[in-house]
Amino acid sequence: MSNKQYKSDLEIAQSATLKHIKEIASGVGVDESDLEMYGKHKAKLPLNLIDEKAVTKNNLVLVTAMTPTPAGEGKTTTSIGLSEGLNKIGKKTCVVLREPSLGPVFGMKGGAAGGGYSQVVPMEDINLHFTGDFAAIEKANNLLAALIDNNIQSSKNNLGIDPRTVEWKRVMDMNDRSLREIVSGMGGKPGGMMRQTGFNITAASEIMAILCLAKDMDDLKEKMGNIYVGDTYDGNAIFARDLNAHGAMAALLKDAIKPNLVQTLEGNPAIIHGGPFANIAQGTNSVIATKMGMSLSDYVVTEAGFGADLGAEKFLNIKCGYSGLSPKAIVIVATIRALKYHGGQSLNELKEPNTVALVKGLANLEKHIENIKTYGLPGVVSVNKFVTDSKEEIDIVIKRCEELGVKVAIGEGWEFGGEGCTALAKKVVEAVESSSKPYKPTYDWKLSVKEKIEAVARKVYGAQDVEFLPKAKQNLRKIERIGLNDKPICIAKTQYSFSDDPKALGKPEKFTLTVREIEIAAGAGFCVPITGNMLRMPGLPAVPAAEGMDIDNNGKITGLS
């Protein structure tokens, strides 16, 4: 175990010398006149830079992970390190990532700009307000909420919306459990129609999902017009287009639809855009950003949130289904600590060697490897190395991967940046060059929503059965009535287990997945089955990360991770 002293992520980021964003753009063939600059180190890219011919010929690599611990296993760090490593071995590469949400930044998990010497910068800006995309999404969402309430209480142009059927909630980009369930419209007649409602976190909003699946502004506007609002008293479905809301909502997103260009610590291009969570949304950056990266580079490395049962499944079955994209290879990030955690070792002891727990926990990684093979894509396991990992533990993982016939490499991007990921980069190139066919989806969209849920539950999670509670059954009938049975599904499920029980670690078997309800995201073009105790507005931990943050008189931030 190393006694070396390491700088914090923030210290590393603040000590870096950044290139002007014009120089980063020039490196991928983008003229300064095409940039919409937000200071010296951030810029938005116009959508006309997307080249569909380049998209079809260039290489997309998806980074996912085994089932994580609460701290996460380093997918973003690995994605950035891998992109640096690919550039080091001569592959023109861009990393394309999601934007961080302030909820985790101020909560427990921390920021999402990578770590150590595999970061995107300016780190503080990216983790905080960045270019204002989340604020625009929040405003567009809440404009629709205001228009709905206004129509309910207005005598002019009243659509006859039954307020009891309205499921559209307001959003804000913060973990705030007190807003999960509220009563709005109090104060008598001037306050409007009193009804029960609530808030979701912005990253889980349908507007975020729509932004990340839209092809262009016209498509964005059409999708927002398709948002299901509720029913009239006569039982007819009402959509956002019926309120004439979609034009104004799209206007609020005129800048947010454009992807953001920044850089890695080693001065390579990084595109960051959109930020849906993977446990309660589709968990991937925008189609526009991915295609932008593939238009400007030979290789694009992107990531999908949480374990492969969540982010990767949704990336392939939803994002790829709508966009026509198909990755050439999938990287599964594994850590020694997560393997021991899934083998029964307690969280506060994960730094201690424990080969017994490690071997037991391999079942979790093996299930993810098995799942990746069902998509017909080559997989590469990246063991994200921590300084507390022993050689014996790492050797056990490498040996098991080799026995399973899957490529494996040590990822040391956190400590050494691109140099620590060149071995991984070479394995990924081998996998990409061996890939000849597009991915195979888990289910046919023509199946009913119920059948699609059962397919994912059994094939991906390993469930023995699926139970639909009364509200979910009622929702299934509504989905059929509205005509959404042919859409993909976006299951909301705990990230800590293959099952809907966060305490069922490893590879649970013979379990029943319980579907509590199914939300309709007609604008995004999918349905959201909500399993177990999943909530779309997280809460803060007992000691939030925000308590350790500060800023001095010179504008220097401390405590951000």
Question: Can you put this structure into words, describing what you see?
Answer:
With 561 residues, the protein is α/β, with parallel strands linked by helices. The chain has three domains: 9-131 and 256-434, P-loop containing nucleotide triphosphate hydrolases (Rossmann fold); 133-249, Domain 2, N(10)-formyltetrahydrofolate synthetase (2-Layer Sandwich); 449-531, Formyltetrahydrofolate synthetase, domain 3 (Roll), CATH 3.10.410.10. Helix 19 links the parallel strand 19 (465-468) and strand 20 (512-521). Helix 7 runs antiparallel to helix 10 (246-252) and helix 13 (336-342) packs across helix 14. It is globular, with a radius of gyration of 23 Å. The relative contact order is 0.16. The model has no long low-confidence stretch (mean pLDDT 95).
Quick structural summary:
This protein is α/β, with parallel strands linked by helices and 561 residues long. It contains 19 helices and 23 strands.
Question: Keywords, please?
Answer:
23 strands; globular; Domain 2, N(10)-formyltetrahydrofolate synthetase; Rossmann fold; alpha/beta; 561 residues; 3 domains; single chain; Formyltetrahydrofolate synthetase, domain 3
The structure class reads alpha/beta
CATH superfamily of the largest domain: P-loop containing nucleotide triphosphate hydrolases
What is the CATH topology assignment of the largest domain? Rossmann fold
What is the overall silhouette? globular
Q: What does the average pLDDT come to?
A: 95
The low-confidence parts are none
The helical percent reads: 25-40%
Question: Strand tally, please?
Answer: 23
Structural domain count: 3
Count of runs of 4 or more consecutive helical residues: 19
